[in-house]
Amino acid sequence: MRRILRFAAQLVCGGRSCATTRGDDASRTERKEDVVTPWGVAATGPRGVDYDRVLTRFRSEPVDEPLLQRLEETCNGRKEHAQATGTAQGEAGQMALHHFFRRGIVFSHRDFGTALDCVRASFATGTHRAYLYTGRGPSAQSMHIGHVIPFLLTRYLQDALGLPLVIQITDDEKHFFRDIPVSGERASGLVVENIKDIIAFGFDPRKTFIFRNTVYMGDMYPTVVQVQRMLTLSAVKNTFGLKDSDNVGKAAFPAVQAAPCFSSAFPRVLPRLAGDPPLKCIIPCAIDQDPFFLLARNVAPRMKCCAPHCCTQSSSPH
Given 30, 103, 120, 148, which is the most exposed site by the fewest CB atoms within 10 A? Predict the structure, then answer.
């Protein structure tokens, strides 16, 4: 795990140019579209995935200088409030803007600035109004670089903003899409080894909840049902390219990954008093996971919930 982290640090310091196509306009129009899905990322050109084109296709917003300034101001606001109140968290706000943001590794977002405004407003009350959500599908006993970067970004945001975090282990997804056992010794071994790697990133244990879908579904299921009721089969099929021959679990799973976007999925982990507004969800993830959360954003108004806010980074070579 330590070797992976060292290699990740070397990789991400190389700048955005290593991951973004910089060809002329003619070559851009002639090349085929890169493949960016939750189950595979493949570039059609020799320079890798063209993330400028991906940003246009996914209709997400670019991370620009004003947004980076808002992030810095939010981190500084937390530090200043901690110093004024004499709380122990004062040191956490002193970190500089993460190089994932400065070097364009995090290149797109969906309403991340609005979430930052909400976080900053919560400093005065001392009550969390937002939380972080990320996840991992346990398909192997160890992680590669593409898995590591979202967790490094999430760790930074938890430290900088002082937010609670929920981490979803999608053992059910790997059963539907890769036929990996969902029970038994092998399944438990994969989950345990992946959770060990996640813990090694150093998340705050007082503010972090790691859950396995097949175990935690009881508390989360009412929210899953709400999302399933709002999603149409055609929307799921069109978003993920599912076919009539695919198993039903593939069509049902997107609602399970979308459910943690809503704080109602965690009645005991993220409790609220009667009359309190729902917490806003901030999702650091790779761009290939964005379709799940776009569906969640689409159904949120009908559920009378806050739409999740995403900050997405490029997918690294495996």
Answer: 30
pTM attached to this predicted model: 0.83
- Cα 99 to Cα 12, 61, 81, 138, 149, distances in angstroms: 8, 19, 24, 28, 12
Q: Return the domain boundaries, the chain.
A: 61-313
CB 49 within 8 A of CB 41: yes
Does an H or E element contain 283, and which?
Answer: strand 280-286
**Residue 243, Ramachandran bin (φ over 0: left; ψ between -120 and 50: alpha; else beta):** beta
| Orientation angle between helical segments 213-230 and 171-178, nearest 10 degrees | 70
Nearest to 211 by CA among 247, 248, 168, 244: 168
| 61-313 CATH | 3.40.50.620
What's the pLDDT tens digit per position in 221-256? Answer: 999 999 999 999 999 998 898 999 999 999 999 999
